[in-house]
Amino acid sequence: MNYRIHILSASLVALFLIKLFFLDEPILILTIFYILAIFGGILPDIDIGKSKLGKKIRPLSNILQIIFGHRGAVHSILFAFLAYLLFLSIGFEAFGIGLTAGILVHMGVDVLETKTKVLKLRIISIITEIILVSLHGLFLIFIGFN
Ligand SMILES: [Zn+2]
To answer: Rounded distance, CA 60 to CA 34, Å?
Structure first.
């Protein structure tokens, strides 16, 4: 999957979650929440050595791919829930929600890709990126953070 679509999707969902639930939090908390959500958006592909993230930590990603297979354990609701529990256990529930939201968005986009196959087409992928970037613009213009 095109990692840019994962990042853009996670970013858009993170912005909506911030708008809906976390606006009263300090800007530092919101920034970490946002970064973790985007990281969650690419984290599940850690189980494939040729992914953007997998390339950066190649020995680990190859081991995960051999043990769990691509779209195995780290593409599961259990993994997302464990990510949430990790942050909850150290007292940062909001960060766990951000990371988990990103992971779940990633899994949703992967389902769209595997069910429809259309995102495998380069032109559809580019159009999807343009739509997601446009939605960011619409969010900032019409919904914003006030
Ligand atoms: Zn994936």
So the answer is: 25
Instruction: Report the alpha-carbon distance of residue 70 to residue 45 in Å, rounded.
Output: 8
| Number of domains the chain is built from | 1
Res 50: pLDDT: 86
In this structure, which residues have their CB less than 5 angstroms from ion ligand 1? 44-45, 110
91 CA to centre of ligand 1 in angstroms? 28
Block means of pLDDT (10 residues each) for the chain, length 146 residues? 90 96 94 97 92 88 88 93 97 96 96 80 88 93 81
Instruction: Report the C-alpha gap between 55 and 28 in whole angstroms.
Output: 29
CA of 54 to the centre of ligand 1 (A): 11
For residue 74, the enclosing domain spans: 3-143
